[in-house]
Design a protein that fits this description.
The protein is an all-alpha fold. It is built from four helices and no strands. The N and C termini lie far apart (about 85 Å). The protein is elongated and about 90 Å long.
């Protein structure tokens, strides 16, 4: 019985991972434009009915290679995939490097009052008298 439950949880983890992946791809990577492919086929058929000798390559060049052409079917052209921006999407990829070795014995949980010098700190930029109570008089 434990072997079956282990495979079931593995199966469920893969299903959930796939759902998250598909949700991410369709929301942030503009994969949702693929839903407009039937509109592309419909529009190509309309162009073939108007001009029977047009090839698919000529159709794609006409609609994608020459920028936005303001013609009689401009509204239909803007419904084609990857022709208009439905939303501003931003994709980020974060990479977190794992800590190669984590040693709890080096963490000082109870400080002894002994301080270590920080050689990266440049204290010569701050005048020594600015933290002192005895400062020179200031001109108003």
């Amino acid at each position: 019985m434990p072997a079956r439950s282990g495979t079931f949880f593995l199966f469920m983890k893969s299903i959930i991972a796939n759902i998250f992946l598909i949700t991410y791809l369709f929301t942030s990577v503009q994969l949702s434009e693929l839903f407009k492919l039937p509109m592309l086929a419909e529009h190509f058929i309309e162009h073939q009915q108007a001009k029977p000798q047009i090839s698919l390559w000529e159709f794609l060049c006409l609609h994608y290679a020459h920028g936005e052409v303001m013609d009689h079917d401009f509204d239909q052209d803007m419904k084609l995939p990857f022709k208009s921006h439905s939303g501003c999407g931003c994709s980020t990829l974060s990479f977190f490097e794992p800590i190669p070795h984590f040693d709890l014995s080096r963490i000082n949980l109870f400080p002894t009052g002994k301080t270590e010098k920080n050689f990266g700190h440049q204290s010569h930029f701050i005048p020594k008298f600015s933290s002192s109570i005895w400062q020179p008089p200031k001109i108003a």
